[in-house]
Amino acid sequence: MEDVDLAVIILAAGKGTRMKSDLPKVLHQIESKCLINYVLECAEKIVGKNIHVVVGHQAEKVKSEIQKRFSVIFALQENMHGTGDAVKIGMKDVPKRIKNILVLNGDVPFIKKSTLDTLINAHKHNENMITLLTVDLDKPTGYGRVVQDQNGDVVCIKEESDASFDERCIKKVNTGIYCFDRKFLEYAIPRIDSKNTQKEYYLTDVVAIAIKKKMKTGLIDVKDWREVVGINTLVDLKNAKELLKEIDL
């Protein structure tokens, strides 16, 4: 049954420079299916047509490909100012009746509906402002680290480029998939800044805002790391083709 109180925002604006290709990253294929189509198929099962896709690099090409199979609402991120900015742009056309927003990434093709259902249900049951999807990795290089206190509560998320040596040793990482209370997200997004090494607006900074305001946050660990593999290079793409043979989508 479709969740009528939930909207999905899919981030698909990036250039994918490390793919070394003129083709937008989300349009690269695994077994003749674009990366973003895997994500859209999953999202459609959860919210039907209430899907908002943030496009940017070669926006018209991405939109044209998506429209062959899906009915979505597009939002244009003209300048690449980070994930926080992308979500802010994606929220503009989300209907006012929507209570929660699920944020997905167009280059993480193997996420399962069952995992997202668990995330969404935990978010609602616990009445969280933010619920993160996390995973423990033996080699967490490249991912934002989830910093927790002695009670296991989330303190913040540190992007690798801004993390200390001790923080880089943390194995629990942020997958970039979240469920947000819509009103909280509207409050928090305008309050993040770009005072970091990348000079970008990090969506992860809204976690720090929630903690500072003593708002409820939570996390759900995904047990199978393969579900949250992001495709950033041609090597990743090749490996993903092998992973697809192992994963039951």
What is the secondary structure topology, with strand pairs?
Elements: E1 6-12, E2 29-30, E3 33-34, H1 35-47, E4 51-55, H2 59-67, E5 73-76, H3 83-90, E6 100-105, H4 113-125, E7 130-136, E8 145-148, E9 154-158, H5 165-168, E10 172-181, H6 182-188, H7 205-212, E11 217-221, H8 234-244
Parallel strand pairs: 1-4, 1-6, 4-5, 7-11
Antiparallel strand pairs: 2-3, 6-10, 7-10, 8-9
What does this structure look like?
The two termini are 18 Å apart. The model has no long low-confidence stretch (mean pLDDT 93). The protein has a single domain, classed as Spore Coat Polysaccharide Biosynthesis Protein SpsA, Chain A. It is globular and about 45 Å long. The protein is α/β, with parallel strands linked by helices and 249 residues long. It is 29% helix and 23% strand. A hairpin with a 5-residue loop joins strand 8 and strand 9. A seven-stranded mixed beta sheet has the order 5-4-1-6-10-7-11, sandwiched between helices. The chain is built from eight helices and eleven strands.
